[in-house]
Structure formats: C-alpha cells, structure tokens
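Alpha-acetolactate decarboxylase
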Amino acid sequence: MSTIYQFSTFETFKNRGFDGCGSVKELLEHGDIGFGTYHALDGEMIILEGVSYKADGDCCIQRADENDRTPFATISDFKPDTYIEMGEFTDMSDLCRQLDEQMKSQIYERCFIGRLDGRFKAIEIHSVWPVERPYEALDEIVGRQKCVTLKGITGTLVGVRCPEWAEGKNFVGWHFHFLSKDHEWGGHVNQVSGDQLTGRFKICNQIECIDHH
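Predicted structure tokens:
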C-alpha cells in the first residue's frame, strides 16, 4: 500500500508545535520527495531526488544538514503512476482546478504526491526566518514574511494533495513548494502562472506518522 509519511500532524504544528521532533536523516529514510519546515520555522523545506533543501527567509536555497530537525514534514518514495501534461494556467486556483480535473477518477479518497516541472511565467513564493519562544501563532508569523516574485523561471513544484479525511493530519487540497532548476530560489508557493508543465504523481492510500526517538 502506497503511503505518505510525516513527522507530527498539521493540527499539532498549527498550534505552535514548532520544535523539531525528528531529523532530516530520519525523514529521508522514508522517501525522496516531499516538503515541510525546520526547527523553530527556520526556513521552508523542499525534498527533491533525495536531497533536503532549505529556503531561508529571503527564499535563497542551501542544502540542509542531515542533523537539522523538523517539527512537521511530509515525504514519500517517488514511484509515479500518474502522468500529466498541463496546458496554460493563469493562477494557483486554475492550476489546482486543472489538476483535479485530470485526476478526478481517484481524487476523493486518495492522496497524491509528486512534481510538476517546467517554465513558469510568474511565481510568488515566501519562506520564514527562525522564530523564538514563546512562539506566536502561525498566521501572524507567516503574515509578515516577505514575498518574492520570480518571472520566466524554470523549476519544479513539489506538490501534495490530501482529501477531506486527512483533515488535521495534513493540508486538505493542494499544497506546493518550489525549487528553481539552478537551486538558487525556493519556498512555499503563494501564486503561480505558466503554460507548459510535465507532471508526475504517485497515488497514496494512507498517511502514517513516523515514530521518532
């Protein structure tokens, strides 16, 4: 059975659960594609081809250390079984709608994890600088982050889509992080437009929390 693995739950994370509970090394034992964040919200995590990248508060990329810790992350091994060619899309909601249409036969009960590769007309991303205790609410922290808009850039969206039964465990609906092809830029995707993307996704039946020590 295909599984998405994760450290913690979105419910715990949302309620100021920003302390790292597992290492990047432990996370990568469960897969090679995914995303999350780092201890005390020290940047956005993008995992692609078995490497964990960190986007700092300016959306600049560096490779994470295997001992870096994460309070919340989602990962799976990338064995795609669904292939998609995307035409033009004008914004995030249009992208999500078109993806849902292409996958509608299985969308209601399954999770998807995978990647969309290509050139983006424009993409708006953000990341976070680390925060200190006592932690503020997530919405307040994210609300004051700087957004970066990149135009005509080639790269990869790492995406996960979870159905309604995943409420509390993970995000319901689509969630994307971006990594540029040159590994210079990345972060959480706020808005995006483009016209030709190649998608590869894996269908998963369950979400399982990783036991950590």
